[in-house]
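User: Hi! I have a protein structure encoded as tokens and I'd like to know what sequence might fold into it. I'm fairly new to this, so please keep things simple.
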């Protein structure tokens, strides 16, 4: 039975072989998957020139595959062995036995001969000799059937109407001329495009492809894709090049738009990260690399978790996943880490990317590095509640802490104390050593006070040289005293500032809760009032609050308000005290002094309102008014023909430190129409020494314009003779305290007498006039004359008098002694 089947099978194969041999125009071959030929019909002999006896057993590659296509053939056979199917049919250029190429239409079929024996059958039809129209049609199929062209080695060119239409021309409007076509290429691509095509005509291997812009008849420049393939004759020589053209302008514009968008994303100042739906990073832009320090190679293919900062965003990541799982967009701030490991803050927006069907395929994160903004915000928040110089809590934070402590004290039935600390004579240190050293003093004081704190206590700087100490959880009032004494001790230790050592003391006021108040602002106000009482009693004192102190503080506030109203109502006026030649009594100059006549209080003592004006800054408003009145009065005297002398006006330290002080003085003189010699300026010794370089600049400007300057209260403040000799000053005034203390007997007060003699000698040495203040009797006058002091002022000669009485003094020409 088996033998019968075998005979039948061989009979069928014989019949099939006869049939295939008798198909006249179809060359049939059979190949094993390693390329070995096992079947070769007679049509294959005619088509490829190999007899069956030579072809059978040979390899396909050696028979009909051109040398240039061997690698591609090897890949195809490998694909067949891997089970990848070939196209059912295709156009191929195969090699004849004599070497020329033959174009065939080849159909393929795979036939299984046994369980593991799969073989390839090819049926080839020679299409080399088909007509030109068939070739054009086939190239149109390959090229997209849009536009066709043909080039022959003899230079003949054919352009189809469709190709011409792509450039806006009818068939009869454009010649079939290569030069005409070339002239339409964009100048930027003309040379390159022509060179590429000419090179292809010389070596037509593979497929020609170029994208260039062509000038449209009416629509500017349009992008055209040209593709071409060579056609060879039976002898293997190039017959022609057939090509197609395709208008790709819309695609190019879309690509350019995409490129612009891609460039914008790449150059974006935002961090851009794109992941797939599993959180695997597929794209990061350059700004991401700049911000994080990661390279693209570091992160591409990694999960976003590698960027998280020590898991601190777990809650936010859960929120992100929940939002994105619902198709939403998440926005917020969180920490990520840089390549160095340090954290940075991101403000991020994470959104899904959907395809045309609406399916989420990716996620995109747009983020901004807000580390600097965050740090600035935190810094601003810090500064809102802390003093920038000392780092201590400020007024706002302290009031909040006091409020919290009051609630705690009420609940626990404890006492708390608010301690107001004001440094004694800080202004002297600030004026003599400069603001920079004053700031260093405040910093060191703050550090010492902080070291004093117990748990639950707070120290704050309220401004200037004022500090507040909150003592909480006190069982008895007596518990405040040891803290105050310790505070005084810790402050009294010398403070080193540059080359100076400074000893600091403080005036301290204490207010208690609940005894004095249970409101934060009132406790601070009461402690402030107690501090002022302590300061009035001398250095290094402390005082507890009483209701009488509150009344004094209220009076101080009323006085401040009244001063400001007084300026508006013109209640301030000037009086003038003559400065005389001590020997002749002749009036040499006048000192302008401000007085305040209140409609209810009457005359208010300068000693009462001037210090307050200095403390509150009101002096910066009052000072210009004094200068204006003095200049105006000099102008009135001159206009009336009264012989005038220079008038000296005092400038406070705060006024003298104003950057426009020189311009303000010269402006007042100009407005009143006065000469510079009509006015003198007096500044205190401490004001002159507060910022020596600025003082020298200002005094030099005044001196150069002819305004004389005197140093008032000389000998009462710290002063460097090295600096003093550099100041363009024409006079120094001996402070009245030294003169007054001699009373009727200079010999009984040798210290004061010695200081006066020293100042006189210093003035003579430096070439400065010396003026003594506070001369009240003949003994003082004679002592001053005896030791060479030429000028003075005081009650012995005249009290400060109104402008009308000054006219009498000037008219007489002198005052009695």
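Assistant: Happy to help. Inverse folding works backwards from shape to sequence: for each of the 817 positions I chose a residue that suits the local structure. Here it is:
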């Amino acid at each position: 039975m088996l033998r019968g089947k075998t005979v039948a099978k061989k009979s069928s194969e014989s019949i099939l072989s006869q049939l295939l041999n008798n198909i006249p125009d179809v060359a049939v071959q059979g190949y094993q998957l390693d390329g070995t030929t096992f079947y070769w019909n007679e049509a294959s002999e005619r088509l490829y020139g190999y007899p069956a006896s030579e072809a059978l057993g040979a390899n396909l590659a050696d028979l009909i595959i051109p040398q240039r296509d061997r690698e591609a053939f090897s890949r195809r056979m490998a694909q067949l062995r891997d089970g990848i199917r070939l196209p059912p049919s295709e156009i191929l250029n195969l090699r004849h036995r004599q070497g020329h190429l033959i174009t065939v239409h080849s159909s393929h079929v795979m036939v299984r001969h046994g369980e593991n024996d799969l073989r390839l059958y090819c049926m080839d039809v020679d299409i080399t000799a088909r007509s030109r129209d068939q070739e054009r049609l086939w190239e149109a199929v390959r090229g997209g059937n849009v536009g066709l062209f043909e080039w022959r080695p003899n230079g003949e060119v054919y352009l189809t109407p469709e190709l011409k239409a792509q450039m806006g021309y009818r068939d009869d409007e454009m010649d079939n001329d290569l030069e005409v076509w070339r002239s339409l290429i964009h100048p930027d691509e003309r040379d390159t495009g022509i060179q590429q095509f000419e090179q292809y005509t010389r070596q037509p291997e593979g497929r020609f492809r170029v994208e260039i812009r062509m000038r449209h008849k009416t629509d500017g420049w349009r992008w055209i894709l040209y593709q071409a393939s060579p056609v060879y004759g039976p002898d293997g020589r190039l017959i022609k090049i057939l090509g197609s053209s395709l208008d790709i302008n819309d695609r190019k514009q879309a690509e350019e738009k995409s490129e612009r968008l891609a460039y914008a994303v790449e150059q974006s100042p935002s961090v851009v990260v794109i992941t797939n739906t599993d959180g695997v990073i597929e794209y990061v832009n350059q700004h991401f690399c700049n911000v994080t320090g990661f390279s693209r190679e570091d992160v591409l293919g990694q999960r976003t978790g590698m960027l998280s900062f020590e898991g601190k965003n777990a809650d936010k990541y859960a929120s992100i996943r929940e939002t994105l799982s619902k198709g939403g967009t998440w926005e917020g701030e969180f920490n990520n880490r840089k390549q160095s490991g340090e954290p940075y803050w991101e403000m991020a927006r994470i959104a899904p990317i959907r395809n045309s069907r609406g399916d989420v395929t990716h996620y995109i994160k747009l983020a901004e590095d807000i580390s600097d903004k965050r740090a600035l915000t935190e810094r601003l928040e810090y500064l809102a509640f802390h003093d920038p110089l000392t780092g201590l809590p400020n007024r706002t934070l302290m009031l909040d802490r006091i409020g919290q402590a009051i609630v705690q004290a009420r609940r626990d039935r404890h006492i708390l104390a608010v301690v107001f600390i004001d440094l004694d004579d800080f202004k002297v240190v600030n004026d003599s050593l400069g603001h920079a050293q004053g700031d260093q003093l405040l910093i060191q004081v703050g550090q010492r006070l902080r070291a004093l704190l117990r748990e639950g206590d707070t120290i704050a700087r309220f401004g200037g040289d004022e500090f507040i100490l909150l003592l909480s959880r006190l069982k008895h009032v007596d518990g405040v005293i040891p803290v105050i004494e310790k505070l005084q001790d810790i402050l009294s230790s010398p403070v080193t500032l540059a080359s100076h050592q400074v000893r600091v003391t403080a005036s301290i006021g204490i207010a208690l809760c609940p005894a004095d108040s249970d409101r934060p602002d009132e406790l601070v106000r009461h402690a402030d009032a107690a501090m002022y009482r302590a300061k009035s009693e001398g250095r290094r004192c402390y005082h507890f609050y009483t209701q009488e102190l509150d009344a004094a503080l209220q009076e101080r506030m009323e006085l401040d308000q009244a001063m400001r109203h007084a300026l508006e109502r013109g209640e301030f006026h000037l009086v003038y005290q003559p400065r005389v030649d001590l020997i002749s009594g002749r009036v040499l100059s006048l000192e302008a002094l401000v007085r305040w006549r209140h409609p209810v209080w009457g005359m208010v003592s300068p000693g009462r309102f001037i210090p307050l004006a200095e403390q509150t800054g009101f002096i910066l408003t009052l000072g210009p008014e004094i200068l204006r009145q003095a200049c105006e009065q000099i102008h009135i005297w001159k206009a009336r023909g009264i012989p005038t002398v220079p008038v000296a006006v005092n400038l406070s330290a705060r006024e003298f430190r104003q950057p426009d002080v020189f311009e303000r003085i010269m402006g007042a003189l100009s407005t009143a129409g006065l000469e510079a010699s009509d006015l003198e300026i007096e500044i205190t010794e401490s004001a002159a020494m507060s910022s020596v370089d600025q003082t020298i600049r200002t005094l030099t400007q005044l001196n150069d314009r002819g305004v004389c300057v005197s140093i008032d209260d000389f000998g009462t403040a710290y002063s460097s003779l090295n600096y003093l000799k550099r100041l363009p000053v024409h006079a120094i005034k001996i402070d009245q305290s030294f003169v007054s203390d001699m009373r009727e007997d200079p010999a009984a007060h040798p210290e004061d007498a010695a200081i006066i003699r020293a100042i006189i000698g210093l003035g003579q040495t430096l070439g400065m006039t010396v003026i003594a203040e506070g001369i009240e009797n003949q003994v003082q006058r004679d002592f001053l004359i005896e030791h060479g002091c030429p000028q003075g002022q005081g009650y012995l000669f005249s009290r400060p008098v109104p402008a009308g009485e000054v006219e009498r003094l000037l008219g007489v020409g002198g005052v009695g002694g």
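A useful reference point when you look it over: The longest helix spans residues 547-569. Feel free to ask if any position seems puzzling.
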